[in-house]
Amino acid sequence: MSKNVILPDEKGYFGKFGGNYLPENLKIEFENITQEFLNAKEDEKFNEELNSLLKHYAGRPSPVYYAKNLSEKYGADIYFKREDLNHTGAHKINHSLGEALLAKRMGKTKLIAETGAGQHGVATATAAAIMGLKCDIYMGAVDVVKEKPNVDRMKILGANIISVESGTKTLKEAVDEAFIAYSKEYDTAMYAIGSAVGPHPFPMIIEYFQSVIGREAREQMLELAGTLPDHVVACVGGGSNAIGIFSGFLNDEKVKLYGVEPLGKGVKTGENAASITYGKEGILHGFKCLLLQDENGNPANAYSVASGLDYPGVGPKHCYLKEIGRANYVTITDNEAIDAFYELSHLEGIIPALESSHAVAYALKLAHEKQGEKILVNLSGRGDKDIEFVLSIKE
Ligand SMILES: *Cc1c(COP(=O)(O)O)cnc(C)c1O
Known about the structure:
This protein is α/β, with parallel strands linked by helices. It is built from 15 helices and 14 strands.
């Protein structure tokens, strides 16, 4: 499939980031997953099955759309890669289908996953349903209440929801609990991580499954605009949608890449989730990355209005791309994202997810500086899930 996916070294490092900090028994299982993935990646039948699902079930290829009204108003040519049009409403279905296929290939009968806002849980429950796998979703008790529509969806899809009562009862604890459960069940279950994070080989696996975004987008830009974009912009939570679109352009040195992190309410610890911008090297959930930390070096609480972005760590490949200067990492506040949410809705009739609105907001800023240039934005998901909340804070 993609020739552009930069693989980590044998131990799973991108530069000094990544790796695999796990107990010995899990290390062996993760080595099995690595081998199985490397075989699957070269297996024509596996790729055919995946591509067929992506096309006939998830609705790929997603279109690239030239946003004429926004372009006229802001003075640069703005294009959107429409991941919001995928089945289940975001890019997450790309890696969930891949992980479920890999689980089946390994003879596993269950998927175990964590979820924050419930988006990854819904995508995993969907993939489990179509593939005939059982599905356990770990979710913080606070999120179970807050994200009721997604909890209901997962239940309808046949997943088992485990409400996590420890700590702040949100995403970080959900990951901890899911991991403990997985370490007892890995003979029959597969962990289905929700972003380009976690111990090796998951960042590599997720990038591979998400690279379809960049591969399609590159071809579509050549077809639609007759040239590559000058700039590619994507929001960064753990980094899966961003690494997916970046991977299509990594070898095109003239194409500038921008990962947009959530600045939330401000620069203080606890007010944002901008891990690359404000994080320091540290280890979280079994891998090394730039990590938001409190004064004692513990993982800090992360915050963003977009719950899909509020993770204190970030994928190791992004830390590496930042270090070698191949990608730029910038920030957008809650308020800027909400303004962009309305701007895209009013001018183009597309309601974006609050996560994706961060990328849109940065693209509009960039347009001011780069008049006449071509900006491609990854629209990672649709905003149906955010409507009630946005209306509650601003009329
Ligand atoms: C989960 C999510 C994100 C953040 O995850 P990444 O792994 O950084 O892509 C972004 N956009 C949407 C719509 C999401 O659901």
